[in-house]
Amino acid sequence: MIIVPVKEGESVDKALKKYKRKFEKTGIMKELRERKAYKKPSVRRREEIIRAIYIQKLQQGLIPKK
């Protein structure tokens, strides 16, 4: 459960913004999207490798940043 302490005189908008930020950091929505459909472990591993190769090429400067 996410608890957001609200100081006296603090606006509701600011408290809501804090809540949204905390909720985003938990990664709940990301996990729900991933669980929508089953992915075979081999497919998941392949995607991780492709992502790692891409990041490595970015760090080496082989792929120009947008």
Write out key terms for the chains shown.
single chain; 66 residues; mainly alpha; elongated
Uncertain spans = none
| Estimated structural class | mainly alpha
Using only C-alpha atoms, the radius of gyration works out to 19 Å
Tally the beta strands: 0
Largest sheet report: none
What pattern of helices and strands is seen along the backbone?
HHH
Shape type: elongated
Return the average pLDDT rounded to an integer: 91
The fraction of residues in strands falls at under 5%
**Domain module tally:** 1
N/C terminus separation: 38 Å
Give the count of helical stretches. Answer: 3
Range of helix content? 55-70%
Explain this structure to me?
This protein is mainly α and 66 residues long. The protein has one domain (12-60). The protein has helices at residues 12-26, 28-35, 41-60.
